[in-house]
Amino acid sequence: MRIWNTKLPTKVKYFGWLLYHGRLNTRAALHYKGIQELEDSYCETCATTLDTQEHIFCECRLASEVWGRMGVTCYPEWCQAPWLIGSYLPLPPQVHLDVILLTMWQIWKARNKLIFDQALATASDILRQVINDMDSWSCRYKDNKNLLHTWRMYLANSCNSVDSLPPSPVLLTWECLGHLCKSMFLSME
Ligand SMILES: [Zn+2]
Questions:
Q1: Where are the domains of the chain?
Q2: Who surrounds ion ligand 1 at CB < 5 A?
Q3: Model confidence pLDDT, tens digit, residues 112-159
Q4: What is the pTM of this model?
Q5: How many whole angstroms separate alpha carbon 27 and alpha carbon 11?
C-alpha cells in the first residue's frame, strides 16, 4: 500500500493505515461500537455534527482552513484516499503523500489536544507543526531532501499568508507617510 511506501515514521504510517481503513477512534466510531453515547459523539467544536473521520479531516472549520491555506480541496470521500488530496498541486509528487499524511496527522493531533487538553490550535499552528515534522524527519528523505524542501517552502508560504495577520505597524507607518507625501505634492502644484 502507498502509505507504507512513504518515508514517514511508523507511528504516522500506522495512523495513515487506520485512516485508510476508517478505523480511527473518532467519537462517532466509538458510538457505533457501542462504547459511547450518541450525545457524547459530536464534534468538540460543531455541536450538531458527529465526530467522524470525514468531519474531522474535511468538513470541520479547522481542517477546511488548513486545506484552504494550502490551496487544496478535501472531499469527504478522499479521507480514505489521501493520495488524491492536492494531487494537482505543481509540487514534487514523490513526497506528496508524505506531506498530506503529515498534515492529516497534525489535524488529528490538534483535535485530540482540543478534546483532552482544551488547547485550541489555529491553521497556522498546524502548518507550523507539519513544517517542524518535515525538518525533524528530513534525514529520512536522503535523495528526496530537495523535493521535501520545495514542499516546505510552499507550506511556509501558506502558513504566513497575510489574511489572518494584523496589519504591520511598519506598513501602516509607510502607508501614512505615502499619503502625507502625496498630499504635500498635491499642495505644491
Ligand atoms: Zn467540527
A1: 2-188
A2: 43, 45-46, 60
A3: 999 999 999 999 999 999 999 999 999 999 989 999 999 999 999 988
A4: 0.84
A5: 21
